[in-house]
């Protein structure tokens, strides 16, 4: 056999071996093996259904960071923002545009459950495939750095006298920030429907309104606004946790005479049409992230609580939460 024929035969043999499913040398050490069907077969996209700067965007980018650093997926992952209508625009994409394509995942949380109701969304979170609840975060009440209010008690005195004169900045209508505003009003003896709530598309926009002095006060997640508070451009006057968090300086709402405790959770879901094998693979990828030192450091840095709850247990939790949010929204007059 000539040297040229031997070379051609060797090339054909190597190509055949590769097509027969030889080892994938491009996958990083520690990466999950693909499913029997070959998933993920390419890069994954994490949809943050809000504008940059908010809690969903922050969470999506932290997940991206850990998955990239650890190489668990074995493929690249990118974050895409799809803001609007309290996350329901991103949700609509998941349910329709990405139906049957689990390479597109979405970060979401309690905020979306309220927005689905207040925006009369034609799609619902239970049309997706829930993967896992990841974390809990308490809310912080802040005022502009030069605000005359030093405590929430001082602010509530004026709020009781003239509710319309006090403007509240937060995320989407019907979301966790709006719910907290209503609960504070209710506990303070003010009709929640009188709250002058200004809804923003994301935490970053709401923060800008507070720091610019365009509103009286703002509401958001503790970790979400931690850097803004540290910069001195806004001041915290209360937290919604049962006990003081972080440095222990900011009093709780309960300490201020308001019987209100509220936490926000965030999780991740896959689109409809995601099969059980792929769902289990993605849950294993999330479990690997949760067990990493990088993720534990992120939780601590953002004052997030680990509340990991995967699969069927998360589905059951979601059904309970949908009912709870509906009841709360009715009680504070946000829906009928």
What does this structure look like?
- By secondary structure, this protein is α/β, with parallel strands linked by helices.
- It contains 11 helices and 10 strands.
- It is globular, with a radius of gyration of 23 Å.
- It starts with a helix and ends in a 5-residue tail after the last helix.
- It has 2 domains: 161 residues, Bordetella uptake gene, domain 1 (D-Maltodextrin-Binding Protein, domain 2, 3-Layer(aba) Sandwich), CATH 3.40.190.150; 126 residues, D-Maltodextrin-Binding Protein, domain 2, CATH 3.40.190.
**Order of SSEs:** HEHEHEHEHEHEHEHEEHHEH
Shape: globular
The end-to-end span amounts to 85 Å
Query: How is the main sheet built?
Result: 10 strands, mixed
CATH topology of the largest domain: D-Maltodextrin-Binding Protein, domain 2
**Architecture of the largest domain, according to CATH?**
3-Layer(aba) Sandwich
CATH class wording of the largest domain: Alpha Beta
In short:
The protein is α/β, with parallel strands linked by helices.
Q: Which tags fit this structure?
A:
single chain, alpha/beta, D-Maltodextrin-Binding Protein, domain 2, ten-stranded mixed β-sheet, globular, disordered N terminus
Topology:
Layout: H1 3-19, E1 44-48, H2 55-70, E2 77-81, H3 88-97, E3 104-109, H4 110-118, E4 129-144, H5 152-161, E5 167-170, H6 176-187, E6 196-199, H7 203-211, E7 217-221, H8 226-230, E8 234-239, E9 263-270, H9 276-290, H10 293-302, E10 305-310, H11 311-331
């Amino acid at each position: 056999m000539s040297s040229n024929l031997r070379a051609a035969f060797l090339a054909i043999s190597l190509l055949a071996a590769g097509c027969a499913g030889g080892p994938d040398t491009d996958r990083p050490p520690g990466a999950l093996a693909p499913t029997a069907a070959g998933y993920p077969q390419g890069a994954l996209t994490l949809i943050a259904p809000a504008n940059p700067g908010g809690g969903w965007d922050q969470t999506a980018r932290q997940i991206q960071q850990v998955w990239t650093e650890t190489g668990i997926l074995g493929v690249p992952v990118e974050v895409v923002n799809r803001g609007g209508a309290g996350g329901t625009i991103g949700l609509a994409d998941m349910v329709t545009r990405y139906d049957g394509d689990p390479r597109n995942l979405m970060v979401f949380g309690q905020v979306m459950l309220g927005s689905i109701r207040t925006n009369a969304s034609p799609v619902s979170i239970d049309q997706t495939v829930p993967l896992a609840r990841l974390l809990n975060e308490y809310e912080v009440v802040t005022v502009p750095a030069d605000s005359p209010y030093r405590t929430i008690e001082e602010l509530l005195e004026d709020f009781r006298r003239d509710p319309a004169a006090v403007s509240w900045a937060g995320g989407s209508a019907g979301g966790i920030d709006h719910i907290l505003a209503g609960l504070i009003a209710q506990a303070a003896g003010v009709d929640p429907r009188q709250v002058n709530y200004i809804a923003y598309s994301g935490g970053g926009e709401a923060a800008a309104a507070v720091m610019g002095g365009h509103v009286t006060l703002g509401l958001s997640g503790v970790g979400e606004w931690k850097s803004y508070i540290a910069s001195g451009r806004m001041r915290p006057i209360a937290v919604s946790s049962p006990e003081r968090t972080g440095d222990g300086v900011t009093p709780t709402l309960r300490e201020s005479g308001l019987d209100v405790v509220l936490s926000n959770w965030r999780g991740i879901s896959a689109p409809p049409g995601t099969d059980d094998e792929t769902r289990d693979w993605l849950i294993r990828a999330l479990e690997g992230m949760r067990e990493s030192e990088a993720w534990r450091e992120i939780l601590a840095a953002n004052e997030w609580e680990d509340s990991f709850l995967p699969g069927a247990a998360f589905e059951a939790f979601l059904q309970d939460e949908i009912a709870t949010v509906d009841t709360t929204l009715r009680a504070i007059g946000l829906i009928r």
